[in-house]
Specification:
This protein is an all-alpha fold. The protein has one domain (3-106). The chain has 4 helices and no strands. It has helices at residues 3-14, 20-32, 34-55, 61-106. The protein starts with a helix and ends with a helix. 7% of the residues are buried. The protein binds zinc ion.
Length: 107
């Protein structure tokens, strides 16, 4: 992902509309690119800040951004676990097939 793409999907990230493969690229790019981190912070502040101003409550935007990132990290972890589970089932499936074949031929 380059900076242009990153900028383009910032709104999706803020509105939690980003899907897992993009989220992964998004956070990887963010780790390595200070400019985009700054851009994300600004857009987040503007978007969330406006909303809070309208609602008139107090807020800590830096904290909220951190929480949003944390949320994304957890979502990625869950996804990783799920795909790990998929591999286990696949291996199990292969194991059963091989077992069945062996049983057919040698029983
Ligand atoms: Zn960048």
């Amino acid at each position: 992902m380059n900076c242009k793409e990153f900028e383009r999907i910032i709104p999706s990230f803020i509105h939690r509309e980003i899907d897992y493969p993009k989220l992964k690229e998004f956070s990887e790019h963010m780790k390595g690119c200070a400019d985009c981190r700054e851009e994300l912070t600004i857009q987040f502040l503007v978007s969330e800040g406006m909303q809070h101003l309208e609602e008139g409550d107090s807020f800590d935007l830096q904290k909220e951004l951190r929480e949003r990132m944390e949320e994304a990290r957890h979502a990625m972890k869950r996804q990783k676990k799920l795909s790990g589970l998929g591999t286990v089932f696949e291996l199990l499936g292969i194991g059963i097939s091989v077992g069945a074949l062996v049983w057919l031929f040698f029983a």
